[in-house]
Amino acid sequence: MELTHTDGYLQLLEQISDAYTQGRVRAVQAVNGPLIETYWQVGRHIVEYEQAGSLRAEYGKALINNLAADLGLRHGKGFSRSNLVYMRLLYQRYPISQKPSHQLSWSHYVELLKLDDELERGFYEKQAIAERWSVPELKRQKASSLFLRLAASKDKVGILQLAAQGQIVEQPADLLREPYVFEFLKIPEPYQISETQLETVLCDHLQPFLLELGKGFTFVGRQYRVTINNSHYKVDLVFYHRILRCFVLIDLKLGDVQHHDIGQMNLYLGYFANEENGEGDSPPIGIILSRHKDELLVEYATYGMNSQLFVQKYQLYLPDREALRRELELSLRGVAP
Length: 337
Hints:
Blueprint: H1 9-53, H2 57-75, H3 81-93, H4 106-113, H5 118-131, H6 135-143, H7 146-151, H8 156-165, E1 180-181, H9 195-204, H10 206-213, E2 217-228, E3 231-241, E4 246-256, H11 259-276, E5 285-292, H12 295-301, E6 309-315, H13 321-332
Parallel strand pairs: 1-6, 4-5, 5-6
Antiparallel strand pairs: 2-3, 3-4
Helix pairs in contact: 1-3, 4-5, 5-8
């Protein structure tokens, strides 16, 4: 007998997974806490010594080299030159009133300290804690410019809130990213791929795909069959979102989204709301992912339609980080791009 989310199986699966993950996190934190505190103290000693002696930059470099050699002899590899540089940065960028969290490892903080921008660094720290990113996952989200993508659609207050709190999912629009980035598929440009092939490779790379979608997504199935009056339709990908407690339906398009694509997704949403939703489920969300989006067509085609239906762009390569950063700077100055 196949279990569905209405049988409580997905809830059981998530409860066990969360308990296991939390147990591992607590075990790691027990080790991380003293280590991060120690490294912060090492950084403090270095900075205070430098400040007391008003050291020139060249002497500061020699100081780090000498410490690396002498501490390395006493304590081993933990005091390499690069580690000492990051310990110094840790103290400088996390003053005593904003000490680093013990929920992340030293390797996480090395990645965070590579970010000069305080807003960006704050976002990735909060998000890595909230979504329990591994170090490779943190690297991937940095490389894909997640903060800049999320910030691009926000005003100054929203950007500052995003940096201070991370991405908080409270309503359907909070799930969205523009564009979604599928660089992990490693499909070269120019490419020749069908919608079915794209769907297949996304399912073959489910873990990074879920990472890109964001926290709370549980995979339900692909080519999910919808039958209405003996007519059969298939939704490309179906997920269930644990936080919003709703189905999320995704259709993939290689070209421009047409008005009938939007009508079809609205049909799916109506079906799921009436035929698939269980007790306590919120209305389903529909996302059409397309390489291109005609904003005016989407506006007219969705006029008066379900507010839970979204058309978003995706791309198969990493976004232009500098272009996104320029948009962010304009938003922070309160200037429309």
